[in-house]
Amino acid sequence: MTTILGIAEAALYVEDMEQARSFYTRVLGLPVTADFGESCFLQTGPQSSLILFDIKQLEIRDSPIPDHGTYGEGHVALAIAAEEMDAWRQRLKSHNVVIEHEQTWPQGTHSIYFRDPDDNSIELIDGSHYQRLATR
Fold this sequence. Notes:
The protein is an alpha/beta fold. It has a single domain (about 10-135), classed as 2,3-Dihydroxybiphenyl 1,2-Dioxygenase, domain 1 (Roll). It contains 3 helices and 8 strands; from the N terminus they run βαβββαβαβββ.
């Protein structure tokens, strides 16, 4: 039997690493777990990371890791506690982050969508949204 335990890492590609690192640490409060200059690892949960890659550095780096990366807008959804939705809304506004859209899902959960400085779509979603599938 084989089982996927969860997403260990997700990646977004940025053009200005300093600006991106500042946004994710200051606005979203994600702690940096490793910083290699061309990549920055941010802790998003006990066993998960969001990696920011400097897209220009990926094009020239010499690495045994297979090439990956993209130009254009990416997306990541970060799980939050439902009872913190209002506090997150206020936090985003206090950092002058424009809320692009809010969505209430049929199962009663809610999401807030906004953009990072590289125009990636970031979603804060009620952490219980996907629990319906976590019966494995």
